[in-house]
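Work Package 4 report. The design task specified in the project plan requires that, given a folded chain encoded as structure tokens, an amino acid be chosen for each position. We show below one input record used in the internal validation round.
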């Protein structure tokens, strides 16, 4: 399959004639503002970029994040939590994990992998998925921890999370019900997503940072 890297600019009145493509991304101009849309092997998403009124265009675009192979298992999230707790036994540091799709002749499944990394309490720098023989287009989510703080993304997170995937932050790591914050990122633009929409988790197992911060104007997206 040929992967297009081009950026398209589409108005919402002709949106039906322009299906999302693998690779690249689209800017969509609609009655409610400017949107960004992308698709990969594992994810299809659309996020708001700028809120404005364009009276001549229909308001037909909604934010969404659709996992093409279904929700990620909660067991992977809890495996990351338990592993990160062990790594913090000597001194608290951030930890980073990738959730990727393994395609196995119809028996497709999600896996959790931890790349080689250098971490402090404030930042983690890691090898790319490609260095672990994981195609970037098969990475569904990045999970990283804020061991002692909230799960809100920092300015460092905003600068680091420049790919197209679900970005997950786990905060208050040692609490019985850790904080979890999820957002879909499309090459530097974001939209918060409730954890239960991307993981098969029970609400009583964690605290959703997006619910706690529901007063935040999600149009800002950062």
């Amino acid at each position: 399959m040929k992967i297009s890297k081009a950026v398209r600019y589409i108005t919402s009145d002709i949106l039906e004639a322009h299906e999302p493509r693998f690779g690249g991304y689209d800017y969509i101009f609609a009655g409610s503002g400017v949107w960004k849309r992308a698709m990969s092997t594992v994810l299809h998403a659309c996020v708001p970029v700028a809120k404005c009124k364009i009276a001549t265009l229909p308001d037909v675009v909604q934010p969404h994040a659709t996992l093409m192979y279904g929700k990620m298992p909660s067991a992977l999230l809890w495996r990351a939590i338990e592993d990160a707790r062990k790594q913090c036994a000597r001194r608290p540091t951030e930890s980073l994990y990738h959730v990727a799709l393994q395609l196995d002749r119809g028996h497709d499944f999600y896996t959790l992998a931890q790349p080689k990394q250098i971490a402090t309490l404030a930042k983690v720098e890691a090898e790319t998925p490609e260095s672990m023989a994981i195609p970037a287009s098969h990475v569904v989510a990045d999970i990283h921890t804020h061991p002692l703080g909230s799960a809100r993304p920092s300015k460092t997170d905003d600068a680091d999370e420049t790919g197209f995937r679900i970005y997950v932050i786990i905060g208050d790591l040692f609490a019985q019900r850790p904080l979890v914050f999820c957002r879909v990122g499309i090459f530097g633009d974001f939209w918060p997503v409730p954890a239960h929409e991307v993981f098969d988790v029970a609400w009583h197992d964690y605290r959703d940072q997006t619910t706690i911060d529901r007063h935040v104007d999600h149009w800002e997206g950062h």
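The helical segments are 74-87, 155-160, 209-212. Validation will be extended to a larger panel in the next phase.
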